[in-house]
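Entry 12.
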Amino acid sequence: MIKLKDLIHERIDFSDTAAQIVKSYKLKSKIRFGSGKNKGDYEWKSDTINLRPSYSSIKEFLMTVLHEIHHAKERKRMGVSKYEKEYQKAGDLAVHKGKDFHDDNEFEEDAERWAKKELFIWMKKIK
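Predicted 3D structure (tokens):
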């Protein structure tokens, strides 16, 4: 027998949810939706988080937003030019070791670890 709660699917407003999460971390980053090959990205010069218009799950959406928020937090902490310089240095170091500039970049790895920790908190708030 199918239960009523299994039939009800609440839609969340990705734009509003992302904006509220960004605000909760005391950031002023802009949120922009568009298409692209990545789940999301962060433009540090304009302090903009770019997201897809849809995600396969709430968990994937939250992980993406949180990951990009970590970049915004680091930019705020370090300043624009220092953040860009340090990110570039970390990417160059990864390439020097024969790894991928983006995927093996220390900044990306830190953002992923932080997002995984924060995800637990946000999943509890949404459920």
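Annotation: The chain has one domain: 12-126. Residues 12-126 form a domain with the Zincin-like fold (CATH 3.30.2010).
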